Amino acid sequence: MKLSILSGGAAAGIVKNLQAQFEEKHSCQIHATFSAVGAMRELLLAGEACDLVILTRAMIEELILGGQVVEGSMASLGIVRTGVAIRTGEPIPKIANREELFKAFNDASAIYFPDPEKATAGIHVYNVLKALGLEKTKENALRIFPNGATAMAAMAASSDFGSIGSTQVTEINITPGVSLIGMLPKEFELATDYCLGICSTSQSRQLASDFASLLTSAGGASVRQKIGFELN
Asked: Rounded to whole angstroms, what are the CA distances from 68 to 138, 154, 197?
């Protein structure tokens, strides 16, 4: 048996953490694709095989209305905030307010973040840069990737001393070589409710329901909290 999942990158840590035990218990294989939520929604709408989808609450609600997700199957995994990261071991800039965040971004040798058109955090971070007046002056320093996890992995592997990154905290926390230094200041904070839903075209609906139950179980909750989800 196979369980196909399309998910925003924010939930990669929880899916991967619980995957092995679920596969062993149910004698199945999980095939999960993680990237920007907009890209995952487009794949689903284009007909990509999918049993379980994990996106923002607004997107899941939209897909329920459109008939792509089973009504009544939506469940929240929790709130994910957008944070700021540096390469582990490098000097930690201050980011507590607008002025400090401006200086941190302005002084950075490179700024790593996800797709500013399809990724929740990427759209937000680029808007923060615009609000700070840095989207043009730091244009050559912008390092844009399909999702937050790839952005953080690239920053960790880079030789850009003094670089900075911003994406959802769950993507920062699961990436070796980068460290979360704090959340965006309150003026710029972003907290996103990530929800799962069972796809209407699922060929493994019971399996999808079972994995959804595991993700939202007490055991799943402890894993979610560990990687940065705030339970609601």
From this structure: 40, 34, 9
CA 62 to chain centre: 19
Within the chain, which residues score under 70 in pLDDT?
Answer: none
Work out whether the CA dihedral 138, 141, 144, 148 comes out positive or negative: negative
- Domain positions in the chain are 2-78+193-227, 79-188
Give the per-residue pLDDT at 63. Answer: 98
Same fold, 2-78+193-227 and 79-188: yes
* Rounded to 5°, angle at Cα 19 from 16 and 22: 160
* Model pLDDT, residue 15: 97
At CA 207, angle to CA 218 and CA 226, rounded to 5?
A: 30
Q: What pairing do the DSSP bridges indicate for beta strands 164-168 and 52-56?
A: unpaired
Report the alpha-carbon distance of residue 201 to residue 66 in Å, rounded.
13
CA 226 to the chain's CA centroid: 15
CATH architecture assigned to 79-188 = 3-Layer(aba) Sandwich (3.40)
CA 91 to CA 199: how far, in whole Å?
45
pLDDT at position 232 is 79
Read off the pTM. 0.92
Q: What homologous superfamily is domain 2-78+193-227 in, according to CATH? A: Periplasmic binding protein-like II (3.40.190.10)
Residue 108 CA to residue 153 CA, distance in Å, equals 17
